[in-house]
Amino acid sequence: MSGFAFRAPGKLFVAGEYGVVHPGNPAVLIAVDRAITARALPVRRARGVRVESELWGEERDYEPAHVGDAVVEPREPVFLALGVLEEYLGSLPSLDIHLSSTLEETDGRKYGFGSSGAVVVATIGAVLRALDERVSPLDLFKLSALAVLEGNVRASCADVATSVLGGWVLYRSFDREAVRELRVHQGVRAAIAADWPGLALEILDVPGEIEVVIGWSGAPASTRSLVSQVDESAREGRVDLDAFKRDNAAHVERLASELRAGDANAAMATLIAVLAQLRGLDRAAGGEEALGIETPDLRLMAEIAARCGAAAKFSGAGGGDCVIALAPNAQVAHSVREAWHSSGLMALDVSVEPSDPDHRQRDTKEERGGAHE
User: Fold this and answer.
1) DSSP secondary structure of 58-74
2) Calpha distance 161→164 (Å, rounded)
3) pLDDT tens-digit map of 115-141
4) In sequence order, what are the residues at sequence separation of 6 or more whose Cβ sits closer than 8 angstroms to the Cβ of residue 86?
5) Residue 227: which residues within 8 A CB-CB, separation 6 or more?
6) Is residue 316 within 8 Å of residue 322, measured between CB atoms?
7) Distances (CA, A) of 245 to 112, 174, 179, 241, 298
8) For the residues 305-324, what does the mean pLDDT come to?
9) Angle, to 10 degrees, between the axis of helix 223-235 and the axis of helix 264-286?
């Protein structure tokens, strides 16, 4: 058995972020060319899996979730992934796993590209290939989603889909409660074999003329907090979530169709309609004042992009993190970057990660020494 590396890119939402948390609703995302890379190497050791990670700066040994009657803590994403793999495979051989990351800067700056889902996908992908266990992208998604749901029962798993597929992704979320019940009562293999209600994964073939520009607001966001506040406002009657989900799904489906067709102007108009809907949600959920989904810096970046001939909106739950702009050509994209810089705002040197899986996975027989890229 050889060692194997699997690169799982981070993600950014283009549209659908507040809708996709509900089963069956769609979202469009891009994979960014920043990633978690896992390297798995079978070793000659009596037993056990040892994990070395840049994220911790130390080695840790994997233990099953339950030892006797005790629950082992903490359950980092890599250990959640190994727990699902152990059940799927029946047992785990002795392995050394190395995790490295380019999702954040060396000074600790985080841009909101995600990490938990990418860690899970990279770990599962690397271990399966190192053990010569071949699975389809759909099954890799399902295994990874089961692990992510162990850590967060409300996760949409859109980040998982993007880390698995790369490129531009159209994702429809699944009935997470039904899948978790299936896993609990019938096990991982039965859950993988079953159809997941509502789930759909599609790589969008977007023509290269449509450019993506990514800017950073300079502040982190709290996705769980904002989503929880929107849910609370719905319970209190300030937000009609059914209407929001219906209208948001229509916008996302239209955007996906326009991107496939390479109709940049239509896609930009739809992105502006998505932003308008999210601004309405922000005002309604906040009551007397906006909730803060779109911060002043996020709004400014979108307005500057519009003046340059692009369309932009915040990516994800808002409150900080990134803005994503669609431009009809490279000249407009360059203008957006320059205008952001001139206004003291940050344009990131980040682009779309290719969907070609050969770009993201490779044998590491000659790389057994290092954990860093």
Assistant:
1) EEEE---SEETTEEPS-
2) 5
3) 999 999 999 999 999 999 999 999 999
4) 64, 92
5) 18, 21, 154, 317
6) yes
7) 23, 14, 21, 6, 23
8) 93
9) 60
Check residue 372 and give its pLDDT. Answer: 26
- The three-state secondary structure class of 219 is coil
pLDDT band per the 50, 70, 90 thresholds, residue 201: very high
Whole-angstrom Cα distance, residue 182 to residue 189? 10
**pLDDT tens-place string over residues 226-241:** 888 888 888 888 888 8
Q: How many CB atoms lie within 10 A of CB 345?
A: 18
Element (DSSP H or E) covering residue 191: helix 188-193
Amino acid at 331: Q
Say how far apart CA 272 and CA 355 lie, in whole Å: 26
Mean pLDDT of 161-181: 96
Instruction: State the pTM of this model.
Output: 0.91
Span 298-303, mean pLDDT? 96
Q: What pLDDT is recorded for position 63?
A: 85
Closest alpha carbon to 122 in 10, 1, 203, 202: 10
